Amino acid sequence: MMDIASAWTALGGAPGLLSRVTTIDRPGALAARLPVRELARACVGACALAAAELAARRAGHAVPPGVRVDDGAVAAAFHSERVLRVEGRAPVSFAPLSRFWRTADGWVRTHANYPHHRARLLGALDLPDSASPQEVAGRLAEVSAREIEETVYGAGGLAVALRSPEEWRATEQAAQVAARPLVERERLDAAPARVLPLAPGAAALLPAAGLRVLDLTRVLAGPVATRTLALLGADVLRVDAPWLPELPDQQADTGFGKRSATLDLTAGRHTFEELLASADIVVTGYRPGALDRFGLSPQALAERRPGLVVAQVSAWGAYGPWSGRRGFDSLVQVATGIAVTEGSAAQPGALPAQALDHGTGYLLAAAVLRALTEQSYDGGSRSVRLALARTAHWLTDGIRPVPAAGAPYDGPDAWIAETDSPLGRLRHALPPVSFAGGPADWTRPPVPWGSDAAGWA
After folding, report:
1. Which helix (H) or strand (E) holds 284?
2. Beta bridge partners of residue 417, listed in sequence order
3. pLDDT digit string (tens) for 314-372?
4. Confidence class for position 261, pLDDT limits 50, 70, 90
5. What span, in angstroms and rounded, lies between the C-alpha atoms of 433 and 182?
6. How would DSSP label each residue in 400-454?
7. N or C end of the chain: which has fewer CB within 10 A?
């Protein structure tokens, strides 16, 4: 329970509520050199407890319902993008140019799943769009890893040189990350206390019922957070730029419970302001400051919509020399020394799941739920912020491995469901966030990207 207690403390939760949590060990779940099972359990457990706390608050109960955290369910959910099947087809996790490459002096990892990131990578390497992985490998083998990192980032692409844990700790960015709390929480103003009555006639305790969430996130951590809020009853509207389509398999995995619309934040500014005018929560997943020019900083949003909860997630944090850099889970693992720990400097490895993304996503959802509970007592617009690199620091320096006892984990099948959807027949991981009386699955399947109107249901 120490891992869950650590996350719960970071969220500002009352220690006495931890007695409501029970855990089920599954030895072998998310097996790694680092305590990935413990991190995953902590993030999901804290999220479930935050959901139970808010559900009790809305129902007028003095004690939250009991929370159950099963390592098996957590492991299956942390592999959601891998266990997904669309009409029996397995998804493509990484594009051909998203991988480790040997360099003149070590290793570098690139991320080029999205077409615009692929184009920037090839442009930085002075290679044509038709370049093969073999051509890319040849070019990278001629250059040092750090030079590749700087050149590709300078062109707006994504590449990170492999660092050992010691090399990462010696950087200014690592020092800045370590100096921040796991969950950054801020009260922005003195807006009145929020009134959150329980939705009448609900078949399950849905702590986010009746709340509207503007989802301005991409890829995994942010979408996992908003997918969780949708599970808990929120009306989640994901909004993307029309020229930045989501990858179809990513949409199928993280789109459960949501609607999906496209909107140009410049040409469609009036529409966005109409959405904001009745939103309760805004979640963003872009580089820190990238949306500020649209008036989407936490302070600017709260000024226009007092009482709002603004949740932000980024790769490297909103501080330090890397604050403006793009990043993904796989790249944070490489920079922070995790890839060396899970493999070696000669042959880098990886965590058994994109645990930084998933873990940060559940923590972000938990932070939103706790902010809502705090608002119901004290009011105030709220800002919560997390970073994959800070979660990585917690994994490497803050969590201690705990021996597991019980039935071994023998795969995800016990926590898999199938459902029909507009995208076809889906096989998917069930949600791991579980508390007595709470929802067991999403009420609606994912829809095709951009298929909904930019308006509230």
Report:
1. strand 281-284
2. 428
3. 999 999 999 999 999 999 999 999 999 999 999 999 999 999 999 999 999 999 999 99
4. very high
5. 20
6. ------SSPP--SGGGEEEE--TT--EEEEPP---BTT--SS-SS----TT-S-S
7. C
Which of 366, 227, 214 is CA-nearest to residue 294? 214
**Dihedral Cα 396, 399, 405, 406, nearest 10 deg:** -80
Contacts of 172 (CB under 8 A, 6+ apart): 320, 321
Percentage of the chain with pLDDT > 70?
99
Q: Mark residue 28 as left, alpha or beta (left: phi above 0; alpha: psi -120 to 50; beta: remaining).
A: left
Convert the pLDDT of each residue in 110-162 to its tens digit.
999 999 999 999 999 999 999 999 999 999 999 999 999 999 999 999 999 99
Q: Is 26 exposed, middle or buried (0-12, 13-18, 19+ CB in 10 A)?
A: buried
- What span, in angstroms and rounded, lies between the C-alpha atoms of 432 and 16? 23
Query: Model confidence at 200, in pLDDT bands (50, 70, 90)?
Result: low
Q: Which tokens sit at 447?
A: 């829809």
How far is the first Cα of the chain from the last one, in angstroms, to the nearest whole number? 40
Phi-psi region of 60 (alpha: psi -120 to 50; beta: other; left: phi over 0): left
What DSSP assignment string belongs to 294-358? Answer: GT-SHHHHHHHSTT-EEEEEESS-SSSTTTT----HHHHHHHTTHHHHHS-SSS----SS-HHHH
pLDDT (tens digit per residue) in 56-95: 999 999 999 999 999 999 999 999 999 999 999 999 889 9
Residue type, 351: L
Q: Kindly report the CA angle at 41 between 40 and 46, in degrees rounded to 5?
A: 105
Distances (CA, A) of 8 to 5, 183, 408: 5, 10, 27
pTM of the model: 0.97
* Mean pLDDT, residues 240-264: 96
Residues 6+ apart with CB under 8 A from 416: 76, 83, 427, 428, 429, 430
Instruction: Please name every residue paired with 160 in a beta bridge, in sequence order, or none if there are none.
Output: 109
Structure tokens at 389: 């690199």
Number of separate helices (H) and strands (E) present in the chain: 17, 15
- Report how far Cα 120 is from the mean position of its chain's Cα atoms: 24
Rg, the chain, Cα only: 21
Beta partners for 312?
A: 284, 385
- Quickly count: other Cβ atoms within 10 Å of residue 247's Cβ: 17
Instruction: Please check whether residue 375 is in contact with residue 207, taking contact to mean a CB–CB distance below 8 angstroms.
Output: no
160 neighbors 109 (Cβ within 8 angstroms): yes
